[in-house]
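I can't quite decide. Please look over this sequence plus structure tokens:

:::
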Amino acid sequence: MAEQQNKYAPPPRRRSNQSVKRELRHRIKGKPTHSGSIIGFTRLLGLSVSKALTLVLVIVMIAGLLLGGLGGGMLVGYITTAQPLYIDQIKNTNETTHIVDQNKEDVAILTGTQNINREYVAFAAVEHTYINEAFMAIEDERFEEHIGIDPKRIGSAILSALANGGSATHGGSTITQQTVKMVSGADQISAQRKIQEWFNAIELEKQKSKDEIMELYINLVPMGNSYVGIQSAAKAYFDKDAADLNLTECAFLAGVPNRPATYNPLTENGRRNALRRMRIVLSKMYELGMISESEYEQALDTEIIFRDTPQKVSSNQVNSYFVDYIIQTVISDLVEKRGYSEQMASLAVYNHGLTIETTLDQGVQEKVEEVFQTQEYFSRNPSALSHLPSGPQGSIVIVDNLNNPGQVKAMVGGYGEKTANFVLNRATSSLRQPGSSIKPLNVYGPALETGKVTAATIVSDQPVYYNNDEPTTPYPLNADKQYMGNITVRRAVEKSRNTTATHVLVDLIGFDTSLSFLNQVGIHSVEPFASAAMGALTTGLTTMEMAGAYSTFANNGFYTEPYMYTRVLDYDGNVLLENRPQFSEVYKPETAFVMTDILQGVLTTNGTASGYQLDNMPAAGKTGTTDDNIDKWFCGYTPYYTAAVWYGFDNEFGRRTKILSDDQNNAKIIWRAAMNSIHEGLEYRDFNKPETIVTATICKDSGMIAGPDCPNTATEYFIPGVMLNPSETCTLHLPVVEETEPEGTDVVTPPGAVVQQAQPAAGQPAVQ
């Protein structure tokens, strides 16, 4: 290819516009085509007229606002209520962002090269190319002269729309206006928004130079296929840096943002459209004197070499699931809490030299990652999985209970070594049915708090009928298809009896109460059906949600939403974002303690997780299993940490893969391995027991105060002031006494007859 001429050299005498256009029409065979179905002539005419009239009405309305007295007042109102463009968002920097752990040590260093979809490039690096001229030619030919808005271009766009059936050949917005729109994220169609955009565009021109505005524009402009900015687009489409773009490639890229879907370079039809659009851009550049005739001719004859291999992350740094989620969370919070557009928020995180102070404990994270890379915890018999499209997966979230309640200390979102950034994070993105692990949160915790049951309350594990569609068929069934008869609430939790949980939910506390308590611990995807007692929810829950909810019991009944960073500082050390936990009391401390004590029995007293208690630390928790063993959960906690574990298959495309019988305890195995590891070397601590807790020895058969003849007794804890607390001695097991014949009577007691005496045993305490 011949060397291109200096773009600043004076162009030779130009031919007439008609001559250029005739030759251009000869070269360009056809116009860019739009995808979609064929529209009838009548409908097409109607749409064209409608678009044209809409544009006319908008302009007339705006003119009225400008000229009329009332309109003037409305104009002032629109301007005064305009959301200002914060200068701290608009930084022309390319500084490294540091993500640090709880001890302020680096865990990740971010640069623009790691963000393949939004890689930043300085204007000075591409100023020697034709990229700015190409964009100005097709988007804003008077960019260098106007004050932020271009009335002539607005009028031209209206006339173009009228002449082309409602579809303008170009828009009325300047590059400055488009930059304002991309920075603010405001895209609603209204006169108010447009006037506010004009105002902010004028303000932006006062605060930034033309080069600075152009730099923002070329880094924020959408380039199709999720790519934002010319640097990411140049790498994705041409496999080169933006600084190496030639004239033809610059014109090609400048044509894409008009309609990225229509001019999609990664589809055959889109590429053909984009090439035609490119020729229009080149023609406009020549018409405006931005390029010479020889450059124009040469560009038309230059073949574009497109990238033919998929793009990969250019950085060797693969971040942890924790860091991935931090990046996504900070971007989201900058949008929600600071008013950034998504593009600006992403650029800020990668390019503006932020310091993100996280809650991460690197020691805990490393130990948990080691567990999630141990095959035996995920598959006892890997050969049995060979027929499946993918193997089993899992996730875990660790939340601090002791020093900084609510802080997430570690997170893993999948089994095995993580080999790429922003892969599926099952800890935060996979919504799975929680099974019986929901019972303490939506049934027994609320029932204890509202005084509907005590730990000693007798409930009947027997056939129940809660399916209105099949009223004569027992529903729900227990996992073992058996019934235990009358048992205490404590035993019902330990053995995870579905019948009793449904009875307590439906008949004792009600759905409104249950939903209210769930909402208070951050769970909202539940509907009022009996199946909710077994964890059949509307959309399922994430591991993060379950960890946060369970930490409520560990924190004396107080809930705060789990959080992963404390502060985000800008390059100058100013605080952009800050997380301060907001605690709310969901349960009384006494309720949280009793629920915790019951859940300790799940691990120790022949409960559903018996044998999985920790080596040297008390723990409480609950198992969860969904129908057909599709999902397995264990959610548990110690005085130090709460950990929620999910185990199962991803089940893409609606597939329901059952967990193999050899692996059905893996959620408990993973939980125990991780918790034993992170508690190694920690001082033994018991759960906090409130001084107000009431203790009594009860009969496990009646739930009453144990008498001397009760065969099954236990020490039980009670929440003070609850009306159902037992106060009378057991009447189910009364002493058997022989009554002697009174003197002076002729009454004869038949052989073997006994008389029962219903008197409380002396010295037995009653619960207050």
